């Protein structure tokens, strides 16, 4: 049953400080035209450029142990975690609660990274480099997990938490079922925790998150429909809670052309129509959809300037920035052409 | 000596209360308006110290409303009334 959410007097003021702050932080993000220029640079030049931006501290700190693409990767992740932690530190009350609820995705990311690392036998130092301790689980706890020998021990460490049930789905062979269960758990928990608050801010967060789920499901559909996977398997992989869940469930298993025709008329169609018409790759479509999501978050925050949405917009923009830098640097290292990297960059 | 209550006395009293309310309510209104602006300005200045000048200017905008209230008070007290 839909719940009527009435604005409370004085409520938006709680958000004034944090939204003012993130809007100032937004101006320090790397401008889009810079990605174009980065494509023409080599890795040391990119590192030097990043040293002039907010990544300076991390790059200076890590430069003695790492170099090249590795240095940029670790520095950007460390900066991402620092930035998200800072958002939590400078907010109180409802904003803090909602930001933490959203940032739990990094807990999921960290658990997945550790599981994957253990699965492929990576060393604990190697795993630690890819962790982003931006959520509730702190670095110490994660370090303890990374040091454990076997996946079963990692799963045991979560006994008594919400994650345990999802993690016990691990059958010793495939990680994808656990990863899928963790994703579902994240959105289920958010719906339960945030939906229960009945606050305006929580409603806005859920509105954005529903859109995010839709976009994720859409990417899954593009991938799986293109590969011609049967409907039941695809439906199992779709995340619940999106606004278009029913429509997407129906589209699962359709032939690629039929599926694409069915997408016309949806709000995201304008963002991907030209790529789809050219028969572009799924990763290009994914980059376009990601850009659409970032635009959506900021556009929505114009309607609710004193709410959680500008903060969300910043969180999403920052994540996109880090992934763009990593894509460019990794692409350069692998010797990919500038055009190929450009297609993957979200702008 | 017994103080005498006259119609004029009540009128003056009410005018004085009105003058007080004009400035007082304007001040409360400006305060409510400023709380959000002040918080937002502090947030921005924490990131960009150079914004302090502009921020202070924005913060003082609702303050102009108090001047209207004060002007009404002064008119009531000294220009329009027998107090003058």
Provide structural commentary.
The complex is a heterodimer of chains A (347) and B (84). Chain A has 347 residues and is an all-alpha fold. Helix content of chain A is 71%, strand content 0%. In chain A, helix 3 packs parallel to helix 5 and helix 16 (269-278) packs antiparallel against helix 17 (282-303). Chain A is globular, with a radius of gyration of 21 Å. Chain B is 80% helix and 0% strand. Chain B is rod-shaped and about 65 Å long. In chain B, helix 1 runs antiparallel to helix 2 (52-60) and helix 1 packs antiparallel against helix 3. Chain B has one domain. Chains A and B meet through helix 1 of A and helix 1 of B.
Name the descriptors.
heterodimer, A: 347 residues, mainly alpha, globular, B: 84 residues, 0% strand, rod-shaped
SSE topology sketch:
The complex is a heterodimer of chains A (about 350) and B (about 80).
Chain A lengths: L15 H11 L5 H8 L3 H9 L4 H7 L5 H22 L3 H27 L4 H6 L9 H9 L3 H7 L5 H5 L8 H20 L4 H28 L3 H7 L7 H7 L4 H8 L5 H10 L3 H22 L5 H26 L3 H7 L3
Helix pairs in contact in A: 1-18, 3-5, 4-5, 5-6, 5-18, 6-11, 11-12, 12-17, 16-17, 17-18, 18-19
Chain B lengths: L6 H41 L4 H9 L2 H17 L5
- Total strands of chain B: the figure is 0
- Strand fraction of chain A: under 5%
Q: Outline the biggest β-sheet of chain B.
A: none
Helix content of chain A: over 70%
Q: What is the N-to-C succession of helices and strands of chain B? A: HHH
- Integer count of domains of chain B: 1
Q: How many H/I helical runs of chain B?
A: 3
Question: Could you write a compact summary of the structure shown?
Answer:
Chain A has 347 residues and is mostly helical. Chain A is built from 19 helices and no strands.
């Amino acid at each position: 049953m839909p719940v009527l959410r009435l604005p409370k007097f004085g409520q938006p003021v709680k958000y004034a400080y944090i939204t003012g702050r993130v809007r100032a932080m937004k101006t320090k993000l790397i401008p889009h035209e810079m990605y174009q220029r980065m494509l023409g640079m080599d890795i040391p030049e990119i590192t030097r450029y990043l040293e002039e931006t907010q990544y300076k501290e991390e790059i200076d700190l890590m430069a003695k142990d790492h170099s090249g693409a590795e240095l940029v990767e670790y520095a950007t992740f460390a900066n991402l975690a620092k930035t998200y932690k800072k958002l939590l530190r400078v907010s109180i009350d409802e904003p803090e609660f909602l930001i933490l609820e959203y940032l739990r995705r990094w807990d999921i990311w960290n658990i997945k990274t550790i599981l994957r690392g253990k699965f492929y036998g990576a060393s604990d130092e190697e795993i630690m480099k890819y962790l982003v301790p931006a959520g509730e689980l702190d670095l110490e706890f994660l370090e303890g997990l990374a040091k454990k020998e076997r996946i079963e021990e990692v799963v045991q460490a979560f006994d008594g938490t919400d994650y345990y049930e999802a993690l016990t789905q691990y059958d010793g062979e495939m990680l994808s079922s656990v990863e899928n269960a963790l994703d579902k758990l994240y959105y289920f928990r958010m719906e339960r925790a945030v939906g229960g608050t009945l606050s305006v801010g929580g409603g806005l967060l859920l509105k954005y998150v529903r859109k995010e789920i839709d976009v994720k499901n859409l990417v899954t559909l593009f991938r799986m429909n293109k590969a011609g996977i049967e409907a039941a398997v695809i439906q199992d992989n779709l995340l619940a809670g999106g606004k278009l869940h029913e429509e997407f469930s129906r589209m699962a298993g359709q032939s690629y052309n039929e599926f694409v025709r069915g997408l016309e008329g949806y709000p995201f169609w304008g963002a991907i129509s030209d790529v789809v018409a050219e028969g572009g790759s799924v990763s290009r479509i994914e980059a376009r959809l990601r850009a659409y999501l970032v635009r959506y978050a900021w556009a929505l925050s114009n309607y609710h300037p004193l709410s959680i949405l500008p903060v969300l917009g910043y969180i999403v923009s920052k994540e996109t920035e880090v992934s763009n830098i990593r894509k460019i640097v990794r692409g350069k290292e692998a010797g990919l052409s500038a055009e190929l990297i450009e297609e993957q960059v979200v702008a | 000596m017994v103080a005498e209550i006259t119609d004029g006395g009540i009128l003056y009293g009410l005018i004085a209360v009105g003058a007080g309310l004009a400035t007082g309510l304007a001040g409360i209104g400006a305060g409510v308006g400023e709380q959000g602006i002040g918080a937002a300005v502090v947030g921005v200045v924490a990131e960009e110290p150079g914004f302090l000048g502009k921020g202070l200017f924005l913060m003082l905008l609702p303050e102009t409303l108090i001047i209207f209230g004060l002007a009404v008070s002064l008119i009531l007290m000294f220009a329009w009334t027998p107090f003058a």
